[in-house]
Write a structure and sequence with these properties.
The complex is a heterodimer of chains A (about 70) and B (about 180). Chain A is built from 3 helices and no strands. With about 70 residues, chain A is mostly helical. Chain B is mainly alpha-helical and about 180 residues long. Chain B has helices at about 15-40, 40-55, 70-90, 115-125, 125-140, 145-150, 155-170. In chain B, helix 1 (about 15-40) packs antiparallel against helix 2, helix 1 packs across helix 3 (about 70-90) and helix 5 (about 125-140) packs across helix 7 (about 155-170). The relative contact order of chain B is 0.10. The model of chain B is unreliable at about 90-100, about 110-115 and about 175-180 (pLDDT under 50). The chains are: A mainly alpha (about 70), B mainly alpha (about 180). Chains A and B meet through helix 1 of A and helix 1, helix 2, helix 4, helix 5 and helix 7 of B.
């Protein structure tokens, strides 16, 4: 008894035809266009302020409206 | 009974507590945005404090689970525009009689502790480009979020960002091709 293996399912032939040159490989462009040298500086500028310790006036800030109640 | 599963609810916390804590956590970001918009630390801090007060007063209008940062940034931005407009008319400015021909002038001598080239260049931009760059480039908002904050279409934000970048590059004289790892 010979088992027949259907060749249709298990074809190991190499993909022929125009496998190359197709649009299969897209360059994954970064989300933002060319990043200027100062882009990091801009973010750092922002982050530096975010990292600053808050002045005392901000600590009391949300207590006042709580006590005052109105605008 | 409304189950509030939005914020981290450890026990019985009132929505106001969540809101207050959320707002307090945003203060550093608001300061960064205000600082970039105005270029003046003291003025920016006043602006932020006003914004926080207003946000608190309007807390019932804030919809939970929505973007609180965008919501507060919108309040700050609107207040910035209105405050400066009003101040420029009455000439009662926060700083000592500094002229504001447009919306922003370069920081006064006293404030110019650390005015980097980038900061100076940023302040030379038109307000709409500067705020777009601050929101998208520095603040990490998406174009859509920035568009909501500024009340314009996303396409407008994109063009403002692009033009702002081009202008900054021109001012700073740097090559845009910066693939710096």
């Amino acid at each position: 008894m010979m088992t027949r293996y259907p060749c249709t399912e298990y074809t190991l032939t190499k993909p022929h035809g125009s496998g190359s040159g197709g649009p299969s490989e897209k360059r994954l462009a970064p989300r933002k266009p060319e990043t200027p040298g100062w882009a990091d500086g801009l973010r750092k500028l922002y982050d530096d302020v975010v990292s600053e310790p808050l002045p005392d006036s901000f600590n009391d800030l949300l207590k006042k409206p709580d006590q005052a109640g109105d605008d | 009974m409304t189950d509030r599963t939005s914020q981290a609810s450890t026990g019985l916390r009132s929505p106001e507590t969540d809101f207050r804590e959320g707002l307090l956590a945003l203060i550093p970001h608001l300061r960064a945005f205000a600082r970039g918009l105005s270029g003046r630390p003291d003025f920016a801090d006043d602006l932020v404090q006003e914004t926080v007060m207003r946000a608190w007063a309007a807390r019932e209008r804030y919809q939970p689970d929505t973007n609180m940062r965008a919501w507060t940034f919108t309040i700050l931005r609107n207040h910035f525009l209105n405050d400066l407009r009003r101040a420029s008319r009455t000439t009662e400015l926060v700083d000592d009689g500094v002229d504001l021909p447009g919306m922003v002038s370069p920081p006064a001598q006293e404030d110019a502790v650390h005015v980097s080239d980038l900061e100076a260049a940023l302040l030379r931009l038109p307000d709409d480009r500067r705020e777009a760059l601050l929101l998208v480039g520095a603040g990490g908002f998406s174009y859509d979020e920035a568009a909501d904050i500024c009340g314009v279409p996303a396409g407008t934000i994109k063009s403002r960002v692009a033009r702002g970048r081009a202008q900054l590059t021109g001012i700073l004289g740097e090559d845009p091709a910066g693939d710096q790892a």
